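Thread title: Can someone regenerate the structure for this chain?

I was given the following input by a collaborator and told the matching structure tokens would be attached. They weren't. Posting the sequence so someone can regenerate them.
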Amino acid sequence: MANTAFGHDATLTTPGSTTNTALVRWANTSGSSLNNTANILSDGSHITLNARGEVRFADADSSHYIALEAPATVGTTYTMALPAAVPSANDYLKVTSYSGGAGVLEWATAGGAALTGSTDNTLVTVTGANAIAGEAGLIFDASAPTLKIRGESGAPATSSTTELAVLRLNPTGVTGTLDMGFHADATGRAWIQATDTGNLATNYNLHLNPNGGNVGIGMGTEGADATLHIAGEIKVKGASPSGGGEGINADNFVHQRVTNTRNVPSNSSSNIHLGEDTGNMVFVWGMSESPDANRFVDIVAYGASQTPVVINSTTVRGSPASRTYGINGYNLTLQMSSGIYNIMCMGWGVPPTII
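Best answer:
Regenerated them for you:
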């Protein structure tokens, strides 16, 4: 409408407008005219702030304020109803329902998960919705610091899927797993088994240091000087690898070292006792008594009443005297051509001894 002047004691000028929903405000401090507020609209029931207009809540002296504004883009128009109830301390607003552009806000009590079974240093796991529990088998000892895992004991399972492992390592995407546990006895024996989570009757290979590096057993604080360094005796029981190739096939493999100051004098013999009528193989080490300059290693295969066969003969140092191997019943005999030698032997089968 056109500008209109009216008066009694004063004249008020109202602005023209292109919409019937715009609100007006004073145009000056004299109170003589009004202007449109094009971005603040009202249809009589609602107030709309266009173009992300802010609602500002000022502090006591109006020097600062907190403002609320709409996001840059609203994909769907919706209305949220405020709660009618009075809130309690620490409550928060929660959307309890929403449908067709209308939602309801209600006050909800802020709270965490309920904890049960808690004791000092136990770790917790989620046991349900808003519920956690202390695990008696998972303990973190900060004084060490050490993570302690306690579980059942028993031999590794050979069927089904129920394992008695204390610790299980299982990668994502494969069924292979590495289980670790203890036998259910007072000996303290522990075990490691690579198996299948879906069928514990399936066993897998276990690789130690697959990229290289030595492995030591019983070494204490000493370093391992070989790919496999064992401080102590070795006992092997089993068969050759099913895929063929090299392997140790023995029911009883014993390393017995025998030394004697004047074990094999020149032109005499030393008997290496076999004791049973089977094919056997013996490693024979020889070292001259004085000076310690001549050493040899022989690998000899033999059996009762059979001619010994020297599979390999190696000079370790110097020029060892020649050797003659023979058989005397169940005994392998060794005769040196000259000198006095100390002899050591290791064999497959029954423990070989020098007599």
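The two ends are 134 Å apart (CA to CA).
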